[in-house]
Amino acid sequence: MMIDAPESVVRTSPQPGAGVIKRSLVVAGHRTSISLEDAFWRELKILAKKRSQSINALVAEIDANRGGANLSSAIRVFLLESVIQ
C-alpha cells in the first residue's frame, strides 16, 4: 500500500522568501557580498532594529564570533538561534 505524502511536504514551487539575494555590506571596515535567502534578510533587519543596531553592525558582530564558519551560514545559524531562544 502506497501512502501519500502530506500536502505540506509536497512542493511544486519554491517557498516565498526562498530566493537568494546577494547584497554588499561593510563588515569590519571592508566591503563584502553576502548571499542569503530573502526571509533571512528580513529577519536580520528586524533583529538589528530590535537591538538598535545597523545591519552592518550586527553582521560585524556575527563575523567576529563565527570562528571558521562561512559568514552566510553563521548569519543563518545566529538568526535561527535568536528565534528559538
Q: Determine the mean pLDDT.
A: 84
- Helical/strand content category: alpha+beta
What is the CATH superfamily?
Answer: protein bp1543
State the end-to-end distance. Answer: 42 Å
Helix content: 40-55%
Tally of individual helices: 3
Sketch the topology as an H/E string, one letter per element.
EEHHH
CATH class: Mainly Alpha
Query: What fold name goes in the CATH topology slot?
Result: Ribbon-helix-helix fold
| Domain module tally | 1
Strand content: 15-25%
Poorly predicted runs of 5 or more residues: 1-13
Query: For the largest beta sheet, what order do the strands appear in spatially?
Result: 1-2
The CATH architecture name reads Orthogonal Bundle
Major sheet details: 2 strands, antiparallel
Description:
The chain is of the alpha+beta class and 85 residues long. The protein has a single domain (20-84), classed as protein bp1543 (Ribbon-helix-helix fold, Orthogonal Bundle), CATH 1.10.3990.20. It has helices spanning 38-50, 55-64, 71-84; strands spanning 20-27, 30-37. It has a two-stranded antiparallel sheet. Strand 1 (20-27) and strand 2 form a beta hairpin. Residues 1-13 have low confidence and may be disordered.
Short description:
The chain is α+β, with helices and mostly antiparallel strands and 85 residues long. The chain has helices at 38-50, 55-64, 71-84; strands at 20-27, 30-37. A two-stranded antiparallel sheet has the order 1-2.
